[in-house]
Design a protein that fits this description.
Keywords: Plasmid, Signal. The chain is an alpha+beta fold. The protein has helices spanning about 1-15, 25-60, 65-70; strands spanning about 100, 110, 115-120, 125-130.
């Protein structure tokens, strides 16, 4: 019973901490999940946390083709400067022009404060900031 409770706690913590790894890859998500799981549930928690972290990392991390496409786009007149800092997990203001990625409509991009950002189109939440 105790192992089951610890396993559930490890998975919950790993999934909740997934937002902290939003700009990371699957490997980082798995590693972070394993560390969180190990702290909570020992070796079993590490295994469960690693799997949960990898799932969260995969769900958030845009494919390489999307990153390449966005990096290749010129910084045009659509670039805007906003006062607030662009943060992964936070939505962009409505004043920012967001363009869909043609080959992968699950992702969009914008140029804000002279930085390219990949966003989730419907919520406008920042998924990744490209330097």
């Amino acid at each position: 019973m105790k192992a089951k409770v610890l396993s559930i706690a490890a998975v919950s913590l790993a999934l909740a901490s997934g937002y902290a790894f939003a700009q990371s890859s699957t490997v980082t998500g798995a590693a972070g999940g394993a560390v969180t799981g190990a702290v909570v549930g020992g070796p079993v928690g590490a295994a469960i946390g690693g799997v949960a972290g990898a799932i969260v990392g995969t769900a958030i991390d845009p494919p390489r083709q999307v990153v390449t496409y966005v990096r290749e786009q010129p910084i045009s007149d659509d670039s805007v400067v906003i006062r607030q800092r662009v943060v992964v997990g936070q939505p962009l203001p409505e004043t920012v022009v967001v363009r869909r990625v043609p080959d992968n409509p699950r992702f969009a991009y914008a140029v804000v404060n002279h930085e390219r950002v990949i966003v989730e189109p419907s919520s406008r939440k920042v998924i990744r900031i490209l330097n």
